[in-house]
Every structure is written in structure tokens, then in C-alpha cells.
Write a structure and sequence with these properties.
It is built from 9 helices and 5 strands. With 199 residues, the protein is of the alpha/beta class. The protein has one domain: 3-Layer(aba) Sandwich (Rossmann fold).
Length: 199
């Protein structure tokens, strides 16, 4: 996807579906990858203004001795409290969108953007095409366990996300990720062929 032709693709799917694996395959086709969760983790949470707001809201127990936000403790708080989750999203998302806008302004760059809450937060208008990665529920739970997330917590977090069936209906393309990485790669190859660059 080079030259002046560019396309901005939103990649979504629920936890444990394999969004990152798919995004890396798009990157192999020349897309630049933007991982929203990584931006939150590495850019926004260390930001002094963000950290101060989190400390004021949730207290010092959500911080390490070095002053870094403990994402596990913040997650435990917000996934058990819808109002707290809404507060955190209102803190982080506007700042995230500023970064997106800056990135998308770069001329001639095609982007693959991992956005787990793309449909939940009605972000469709940011993107030229929408791709949903899907996997069956037991597979999602297994993958999340492998990441160290207990099954009960995994189910709790998944319950906060829009059902995969709805996301698949809303997406332009659906990638099935219950099989091998090679199977996923062949699907990504086909999607890339079909994407119409913005002119």
C-alpha cells in the first residue's frame, strides 16, 4: 500500500480473538500498525496528568512504589464498576484520538488500527474499512488464560464487549481465527487484495 494511495483500516474483535496476530500480517503488506491498547499503556498511562487523575480517583493502591499505574488493579476496579469504567474511558479516549489524528495526518501512509471498542464507542467514521477478527468462545478463554487472565475475570471482561456476532455483522470483512496462523494469513491476503485505497 505505497505511494499516494492510502487506506485506514479499523481492526476489531473481542479479547482473545487474535487482533494483534492479524494486525502484524497487515503490517507485512505495508500497513503501519497502530495498537490502541499499547498507546494507552505506553503513552497515556505514564502521562503525568493522566496518572494524577487516576491517583485522585482510585488512590495510591493502584500505583507501584515507583509511581507507575498498576493496570491490573485499575482493571479490577473499572470492570467491576460501570461508572468507574466510563470515567476512565472519558479520561483516556479523547487523548487517544488526538494521537490518531496526528498519525492519520501523515501523507501516503496506510494504517491498520487495533481498536477493541471500535463499535462499542461508535468509531466507524474514523476508518475507510472495518475488519473483525473472530474466534469461538472457548478459544478466547484459553488464549486469555495463556496471558495470565483468570477465566472468571476473562468472562467478566468479555461480557463488557459487544457480542462477536454483532461486530461481524457491522464489519466489512470478517477474519476467522480458530485455525492455524497460515489460515489467518491467507484471509488477510484476500482482504488486502479487496481493499480499495482512498484516492
Amino acid at each position: 500500500m505505497g505511494g499516494n494511495q492510502r487506506v485506514i483500516v479499523g481492526l476489531t474483535g473481542n479479547m482473545g480473538c487474535g487482533k494483534t496476530a492479524a494486525a502484524l500480517m497487515f503490517a507485512g503488506h505495508g500497513f503501519r500498525r497502530l495498537d490502541s491498547d499499547q498507546l494507552v499503556r505506553e503513552v497515556l498511562l505514564p502521562d503525568q496528568e493522566v496518572a494524577s487523575a487516576i491517583r485522585e480517583k482510585f488512590g495510591s493502591s493502584c500505583f507501584t512504589e515507583e509511581g507507575r499505574v498498576r493496570r491490573d488493579r485499575v482493571a479490577a476496579r473499572v470492570f467491576a464498576d460501570a461508572k468507574a469504567l466510563n470515567w476512565l474511558e472519558n479520561l483516556l479516549h479523547p487523548r487517544l484520538f488526538v494521537i490518531w489524528r496526528q498519525k492519520f495526518a501523515e501523507p501516503g501512509v496506510s494504517w491498520i488500527v487495533e481498536a477493541p471498542l471500535l463499535f462499542e464507542k461508535r468509531l466507524e467514521n474514523w476508518f475507510d474499512s472495518l475488519v473483525c477478527v473472530t474466534a469461538d468462545f472457548p478459544q478466547q478463554i484459553r488464549r486469555l488464560e495463556q496471558r495470565g487472565i483468570p477465566p472468571d475475570l476473562a468472562r467478566q471482561r468479555l461480557a463488557k464487549q459487544l457480542p462477536l456476532e454483532e461486530k461481524c455483522e457491522l464489519a466489512d470483512f470478517v477474519l476467522l481465527n480458530d485455525g492455524s496462523l497460515d489460515f489467518l494469513r491467507r484471509q488477510v491476503d484476500l482482504v488486502v487484495q479487496k481493499l480499495q485505497p482512498v484516492r
